[in-house]
Amino acid sequence: MNHDAYPDNYIRGILNSVKSIAMVGASPVNVRPSYFAFKYLAQRGYDMIPVNPGHVGKELLGKPFVASLSDIGRPVDMIDIFRNSSHIMPVVEEALTLDPLPKVIWMQLGARDDAAAAKAESVGIKVVMNRCPKIEYGRLSSEISWMGVNSRTLSSKRAPAPTQGMRLSLNRMSVGGGDTAASDRAAKNKTGQS
Amino acid sequence: MSDRLPGFSTLAVHAGAQPDPTTGARATPIYQTTSFVFNDADHAASLFGLQAFGNIYTRIGNPTNAVLEERVAALEGGTAALAVASGHAAQVVILQQLLQPGDEFIAARKLYGGSINQFTHAFKSFGWNVVWADPDDIASFERAVTPRTKAIFIESIANPAGSITDIEAVSTVARKAGVPLIVDNTLASPYLIRPIDHGADIVVHSLTKFLGGHGNSLGGIIVDAGTFDWSTGGKYPMLSEPRPEYHGIRLQETFGNFAFAIACRVLGLRDLGPALSPFNAFMILTGIETLPLRMQKHCDNAKAVAEFLAGHPAVASVSYAGLPSDKYNQLARKYAPKGAGAVFTFSLKGGYDAGVNLVSKLQLFSHLANVGDTRSLVIHPASTTHSQLDDAAKVKSGAGPDVVRLSIGIEDKEDLIADLEQALGA
């Protein structure tokens, strides 16, 4: 997988297929991005599990915190890592001990670890780096368009008015990754990948 | 659902718009409302805290304006956009995110006269100091860089003479200086030039001109290329530091490659207030649907008129980059192969008096201070758009006393040439 520019169908396939998401580094502080990404994904119908050893015994929006991935005690489809790039590898290594393995490992906006990604991909896990699932869901459904963001999708179909808790269709026609190629190139230069 | 790239004309018609969820209306409705109801207190708090997608108040965002924003972002190849009340308002909002009082920005000397005024006088009162550079001498940009430089500003096709700026060369200077390149793409429109493809980090437009295209609605827009890293060196605290207005959110961390557009919306538009009327957004959107058709006609007509003028005995010189003999022709072939735009200048052998005489005799050309209308327009910059400059600055910006500026419309070119011929001949 080219981690500089993901085809929309790759992201769409992931967001359409996973049901449960364990969020590593989920924060109960309601101005942190992890908090509102957690909340949004829960509102869009995903089965969310907050993972943060500092908050065991507490709940995030009604879901009990667990200390680590191995404490979840049931299969999870996707692990969303809200940690800096330097803390990715141990989380991925722990994820690789789970049985069954997760289908997807997702690293948040700003987080990227190519070695960890290669490790996960070598056992058939799909990897997304330096993206936010809330932004991608909002983009592919065009819900994000309210703030002038280029969703890079088109549709001539009438969509239902979104309400809380509703899953939205992500199956719009893609304009492809090409139109933000400039920003993808910039991300590539920043991380020194070639 | 395949990742196929639609063409420019398809995006011009469709990007950002889809049938209205409530009514099924196919044209984008005009959401002429100031405010939007919240579902409950939690929803309201989430929206105010920038945590949820949705509408609050038309000074921050409006569904009609949002369609316009996404459409222009798509046409320019940016990650997001913000529409505001005018091109001038867009420039204020952009620089407010980038400059603190005492900071500097470098601007090309050849700009729309209104921008020269705004930068020289209004921005000086904010403590934003403009340093001028010569777009025909790239090294002059390099020499102007200081530790306080926060941005570089150029026009892709420069007012009034339609000269072409070497965007890639200036972008190299900006990159080396670690500052964003802002390109005013008003006279080219994304149909002719997409500055982001050549290294621009921010694109700004007066929507009033070719994008709206019909001379009926003011508007401006800011496009975020998503290319600039705002976090380095603490140079851009509006983007990289926790914002007290929003409970300590860091915009770059939260919004990634469209953080600049969000900063312009939630720190600029929200607090400075130059909101675009949804009605104007609707008019401009309707104009954009035909941008590719109009722009090609504008350019084809402009080339024919420039060729006619270049061969006329009363004309001293024509500045149109689409003419093979023009000094900007090489740059035009590189940056604007479909056409060199439709705004250019020429000078008359009879000087100032001949210019005044010409303007008074024209029957089809309208004498007014605008460009990028369906109608052909004429103006004498030295006495109007550039009148507040001193004589030396007028000449440097291409608006000397003998210069007449044309903005060629989409009428039949034979009629435009006949009108010029009768006005020049008598």
TrEMBL record, chain A:
Domain (CoA-binding): residue spans on this chain: 14-111
Domain of life: Bacteria
Pfam families listed in its UniProt record: CoA_binding_2 (PF13380)
Residues spanning the membrane: none
Disordered: annotated segments: 152-194
PANTHER family: COA-BINDING DOMAIN-CONTAINING PROTEIN (PTHR33303:SF2), CYTOPLASMIC PROTEIN-RELATED (PTHR33303)
Protein's UniProt name: CoA-binding domain-containing protein
Organism (species): Bradyrhizobium sacchari
Automatic annotation (TrEMBL), chain B:
This protein's record includes keyword Acetylation: no
A single cellular component GO annotation: cytoplasm
CDD domains the UniProt entry points to: CGS_like (cd00614)
Gene3D superfamilies to which the protein is assigned, alphabetical: Aspartate Aminotransferase, domain 1 (3.90.1150.10), Type I PLP-dependent aspartate aminotransferase-like (Major domain) (3.40.640.10)
Any GO molecular function: pyridoxal phosphate binding
InterPro entries associated with the record: Cys/Met-Metab_PyrdxlP-dep_enz, Cys_met_metab_PP, OAc-hSer/O-AcSer_sulfhydrylase, PyrdxlP-dep_Trfase, PyrdxlP-dep_Trfase_major, PyrdxlP-dep_Trfase_small
Record-given protein name: O-acetylhomoserine sulfhydrylase
Keywords, comma-separated and alphabetical: Pyridoxal phosphate, Transferase
Protease recorded as keyword: no
One Pfam entry name: Cys_Met_Meta_PP
GO biological-process terms attached to the record: cysteine biosynthetic process from serine; L-homocysteine biosynthetic process; transsulfuration
Cofactor field: pyridoxal 5'-phosphate
Entry similarity comment: Belongs to the trans-sulfuration enzymes family.
Residues recorded as bearing N6-(pyridoxal phosphate)lysine in the entry: 209
